[in-house]
């Protein structure tokens, strides 16, 4: 098997895992929904 083909197959598998596992995480745990403001926004005082 050509190394380039193997690399392409591995990248495709990783990309599919990233998309589908990420979608599952959002459905199960609400990760990445962004409904709750972070402390960086709620406690902003304008000073670095």
TrEMBL record:
<protein>
    <recommendedName>
        <fullName>CstA N-terminal domain-containing protein</fullName>
    </recommendedName>
</protein>
<feature type="domain" description="CstA N-terminal">
    <location>
        <begin position="2"/>
        <end position="48"/>
    </location>
</feature>
<dbReference type="Pfam" id="PF02554">
    <property type="entry name" value="CstA"/>
</dbReference>
<dbReference type="GO" id="GO:0016020">
    <property type="term" value="C:membrane"/>
</dbReference>
<dbReference type="InterPro" id="IPR003706">
    <property type="entry name" value="CstA_N"/>
</dbReference>
<dbReference type="GO" id="GO:0009267">
    <property type="term" value="P:cellular response to starvation"/>
</dbReference>
């Amino acid at each position: 098997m050509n190394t380039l083909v193997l690399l392409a197959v591995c990248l495709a598998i990783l990309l599919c895992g990233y998309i589908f596992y990420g979608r599952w995480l959002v459905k199960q745990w609400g990760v990445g929904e962004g409904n709750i403001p972070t402390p960086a926004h709620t406690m902003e005082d304008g000073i670095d």
